[in-house]
Every structure is written in C-alpha cells, then in structure tokens.
Amino acid sequence: MLSTTTSGAVYGVCSHLIEVEVDVSSGLPCFQIVGLPGSEVREARERVKVALKNVGIKLPPVCININLSPADLPKNGTMFDLPVAVGILIALGQLAQESVQDTLLLGELGLSGELKPVKGVLPIVREAAKRGIKRCLLPQENAWEGALIPEMESVGMGDVKEAVDFLAGKIEKSGAGQEGAETLSRMLSGGTVSGQPDFAEINGQQGLKRAAEVAAAGFHNLLIIGAPGSGKTMLARRIPSILPPLSLEEGLEVSTIYSISGLLQSAASVKMTRPFLNPHHTITGRALVGGGRIPAPGVISLAHRGVLFLDELPEFKRETLDILRQPLEDKQVQIARSSGSYVYPADFMLVGAMNPCPCGFYPDRDRCRCTPYEVRRYLSRVSGPILDRMDICVEALPMRFAEIAAGGCGETSARVRERVMAARERQTARFAGTNLHFNADMGAGEVERFCALGEQEKAYMEKMFAAMQLSARAYHRILKVARTIADLDGSERIEETHLAEAICYRQSDRKFWN
Predict the structure, then answer these.
(1) Which of 256, 213, 194, 268 is nearest to 394 (CA)?
(2) Which of 9, 45, 399, 502 is 20 to 30 A from 182 (CA-CA)?
(3) One domain for residues 88 and 116
(4) pLDDT-derived band of residue 409, with 50, 70 and 90 as boundaries?
(5) What pTM was estimated for this model as a whole?
(6) What is the 3-class SS of 122-161, one letter each residue?
(7) What's the CATH code of the domain at 133?
C-alpha cells in the first residue's frame, strides 16, 4: 500500500515542501530511503523502527521503500523522522490517509518515541501556509514557533504515540496559539528597546552622536576613528537603541535566519529588535560569512537588518575584512558547495571602530611614539575598497574634563529615535512600491532618481568631485548621506548645506589615509 505525508526542508533561507512517499509490500524485509538523503536522513530507519517498538507499535517483516520527493534536492537533518513514521503506519493501514490531509509533519524521534525539537521550523511553516496547508504537527518545544504564522494551526506533540492517537481521532489537542499569538502581538507593536544602553549616558561628543544619528536614519555604514577611551565602543553599542523597530515582515525574516541556525530556542528569543553582533577580531572568514559541509548562516547573516560592530577594526585579518566587500554591495552572501548553491541575506549596517595608530594617539605627537612607517602599516590593514564602502567616517575627539564631570545629561535615545523614525517615514513614503527600505539601499539608478540636485548643488558637487578626486561609488554615497540629512531636516530637496555635511563625513578618512 502507498501513502504520502508532507514535510519540509531548508536550503539557505528558502524552504521547500517535501512529499514523503511510503510503499509497503511483501517480500524480503527491508527498509530503504531514496531521494538524495543525507546521513542523518538515512539513520531515520533505525530511529523510527526502535521508536515505534518502544511505544508499542510493532512493524511486521515487510519491504518498506521511502521516496523523498522532489528527489533531485539533497535532504539533510532529522525532521523527517515523524513523517516517515506516520507514513509507514498509513501504508500499513493503521491510520487513514485522510488524517494527514493539509497537515505538515516535522520532528526528530528519540529511541523512546519522544519527539525532539528541530531547526528551521519557522521558514518551513511559512512556506506551508503559503501553499494552503492549514495544520502542522510539531515537537512540543517547536509548537510556539509554528504558531507565529496566524494562518497555521500548530499542534505540539510529546511523542510519536500521542501524534498517532491524535491523527486517529482518539485524543483531542488544541493548537499552541497562546504563546505564539503573544509573541506576534509584541512584534506587531514594534518590539521594545527597554533595558538597552541609552544615548543620554554619553557625555559630550556631539559631532559623534550626530554622525550616529545620520547613520541610523539612513542605515549607513559608519567608521569611528579615535584615541582609546574617547567613547567609540560606548556609542556603537547604543546605536540599536535609536534604530527604527523591525516591521513584522522584517522580524519574521530575521527570526527565520535564527531558526535555521538553531538559535530560536523559545518565544523570548524571537527577534523583535534589530540584532547587534560584535564578533571578536580573531573570527575566521567562514564564521563571518557562513559555510561548512552543510552550509549554515554566518555572523553577517545573523546581523541581517541590524548592526554588525567590528571593534578594533585593523586587528581583523585583512583577508577577513575583504570578504565583506561583496556582501556590503549585494546585501547577500552566496556559498557554493557540491550539493548546491546557498544564498543567505546580509543586509546589515556595518559599524567599525579603530585607533589611528598602534598606540592610539596619532596625530598627537606629544603622546604618540609610533613611526610614520608603523602608522601607515597599521592603517593599511583596512583596505581602500572597504574604506570606500563606509558612508560616514568620523573622528572621536579626546574628552575634556568638563564633559566627563558633567555627567549623563545629553539627549535620550528616545528623543533621537523620534527624529530617526520621522526620517524613516519619509523614506518609506519615497520608496513605496520598491524593494528599498533605507536610503543606503539605493543603487546608482535610484540615486539619480531620488537624489536630484539643483543647478547650484550640481556646481558645488562638481567642484568637490575634482578637489577630492572622488570615485563614482564615493560620489553616490555622499548623495545618499545628503539625502538622509535632508530627511532629518524635513526637506524635500537636497541643499548645499546637506551636501557640505555629507562631505565632512568623508574628510576623516582623507586625514588619516592620505
């Protein structure tokens, strides 16, 4: 007898529904799985047989053939255990085929029959809901994750016997909607920033805080250069508190990446605020962009829609930093393996902090003892192409005693965030009907369309282009930053003052690297 159940698999951040076809026939006893199964999927044979035996369901000596369709897609992971077990019981006549109609099955089986949690539930359930499936049976620990999708009834199961009895109609069980609905409600409300470090704790550094506000409003990459103790790291850690909240779609998009990575352990771990990742400078290139035998998202994908903060930027290996070139332009990273090509999103705001020299005090020659060669060698660890991709480069000046003694009396993150949100709303209206979210997302065509200059502003930029010997990329980035500054000022057109401020944010890199 032939049976079919529905499961799913994840490839990159895309998910596909997998039909688990089971055929049971007389003949020499066997149990084989085809359809490009990975080692974890092939091991399901032993797990399913022992799990069913230990819950009191004995399999007869028959020939069991299982096909995972479409057969040309590689299958990995342990989430096929439950659909395989249920498919066998349907093929044996112990369950009706109609019991799994419009039902998604996911779960790993322990030898005792218990259902263990699996990774990547959220993207699979989202895809199933798009395909018209109304119900999913998941391990108890994953039930809240399925309930994040309003169109889906998510039912959590403790073991395979409970799942079989539920499908047979012997027991009733309500969906796990409470926890998922509460989480979804919090995501719709824009999340929360309570408990985060506040901008009011930063004394002085008005120019630095203004640069951070502009960067947050347009989601621009930011590089902070300054002596040790000038507040570079302190400010960078407070940038998430002034960023616009994640929309519902963005929150589900980010949570999908964390689900694939196995980092979505409970409803409390659902991403309702923008991620902030701060990797150590010893990180490897593969950990940064992702990879492995079975590719997994790297740090830059975990920072998607959030902030990637690289402290002590020159201490990172130059080849590691140069890996960021393509993701910073394409907003995604592509990993090629023999099993296929995997694409992970990487639309993040890069914030870097660095000293101007090994001792940190250049160009103050009263304190700096580095030779010109040592300074050049230190700065050269940040390549020109990476530097060219930093929209805003600002210097953190040494703190004065009066500023330190004044205490935290500056603007709060909430007030700065109001201005950022107002600028964000202008960008939302401007980019309606496009795939753009922030000014930093604009390409050359969009810059020409949305950053048109008047005759006076064109003459000013022509003069600056020649004087600063700008590249085409640097020119477009100045226009994008100027567009953000105009949005913060509530101006519909880019004026010369906006261009002048944007150009000032390109002066610090010229000061040190030239």
Answers:
(1) 213
(2) 9
(3) yes
(4) low
(5) 0.88
(6) HHHHHHHHHCCCCEEEEEHHHHHHHCCCCCCEEEEECEHH
(7) 3.30.230.10
